[in-house]
Amino acid sequence: MEKRISYIEAIHALHPTGRFVMQASHKKDLTEAEYNSRYKEITSVTGGVDKDEAVFSTDPKDFKVTYTAAKAKYDELIAKGNTPATTLSAAVKKIEELEAKVASLESG
Q1: Do 77 and 6 contact (CB within 8 A), yes or no?
Q2: What SS3 string covers 15-62?
Q3: d(CA 6, CA 77)
Q4: Would you say the C-alpha torsion 50, 51, 57, 61 has a positive or negative sign?
Q5: Is residue 83 classed as helix, strand or coil in its secondary structure?
Q6: How far apart are the C-alpha atoms of 78 and 86, rounded to whole Å?
Q7: Does the pLDDT value for residue 103 go beyond 80?
Q8: What is the pLDDT of residues 14-69, one digit of tens each?
Q9: What CA–CA distance (Å, rounded) separates 26 from 8?
Q10: For residues 17 and 19, what is the distance between their CA atoms, to the nearest angstrom?
Q11: How far apart, in whole angstroms, are the C-alpha atoms of residue 68 and residue 82?
């Protein structure tokens, strides 16, 4: 079975602690500006045992995984035969295309 890859998998492969948040990264042509606006580095945790709260940085200087590194890892994972992850609307469109093709083959 093929593996669907997003930038999150690429970042996880590179990040030393896994302490980051990435929003809406299921886009294969993510730009550096989009990456930087969607990525948050967890720089510390405060609040004690019962009230842990993450402290985030959105400053690219604090990112442990830069866009350039994430993009290179993403491209490497795709080159190894993985499939880019898609948004739901893209997946629905692909299903509709395949259903139309099956209907066409069945009719004749």
Answers
A1: no
A2: CCCCCEEECCCCCCCCCHHHHHHHEEEEEEEECCCCCCEEEEECCHHH
A3: 9
A4: negative
A5: strand
A6: 13
A7: no
A8: 999 888 998 865 666 789 999 999 999 999 888 766 767 888 999 999 999 999 99
A9: 8
A10: 5
A11: 19
Token pair for 97: 């295309």
Phi, psi of 47 (to 5 degrees): 105, -10
Give the whole-angstrom CA distance, residue 100 versus residue 53: 49
Whose tokens are 């880019």? That residue is 84
Tokens of 9: 């998998």
The structure's pTM equals 0.69
One-letter amino acid for residue 5 of the chain: I
- Indicate if the alpha-carbon torsion angle 14, 67, 91, 97 is positive or negative: negative
